[in-house]
């Protein structure tokens, strides 16, 4: 298992000692999830944290009509988990699905949480990660959903070409909170 990218990403938030890195790697496994395979299904307990080495995953829920509503997408070098479910120790309200074949490093929640208590540097990584990705990065997304039009959100997504080109139109529409027909109109207006 080549873990260089994994440790490099962690160290961008807070550098780990060799001892802590070694302890973390001991609980990690590399897994492959095929396209459309779930890493986690809604209603199940979140048992793992994931680091995406390659591929693309979607984080979604299902509405009353049975349609998938995507909250966010994760590309390579991203950390993924049903964080709220882990914190509350409750079944996840969201599913995590491989939108492409994915290679991930996964590590069990229970063992990782034990390491957080033993290794202050790992705990500091965890805090810095949560602050940056679940507070600082999430706030503009929430504001965007409340105050920006679907067209403005589409233009913003379009700026991230690498992600945009990997998504199906129905996934984009779901993420924007609009129908595929509305998305088609927006695309026509912008062309």
Automatic annotation (TrEMBL):
User: What is the protein's species of origin?
Assistant: Chryseobacterium arthrosphaerae
**Top-level taxon:** Bacteria
| Alphabetized InterPro entries for the sequence | cNMP-bd_dom (IPR000595), cNMP-bd_dom_sf (IPR018490), RmlC-like_jellyroll (IPR014710)
Name of the protein described by the UniProt record: Crp/Fnr family transcriptional regulator
Matching entries from CDD domains are given as: CAP_ED
> Which SUPFAM superfamilies would you find in this protein's record?
cAMP-binding domain-like
**Pfam families, A to Z:** cNMP_binding
UniProt xrefs under SMART domains: cNMP
| Record domain Cyclic nucleotide-binding: where | 12-133
Q: Which Gene3D superfamilies does UniProt cross-reference here?
A: Jelly Rolls
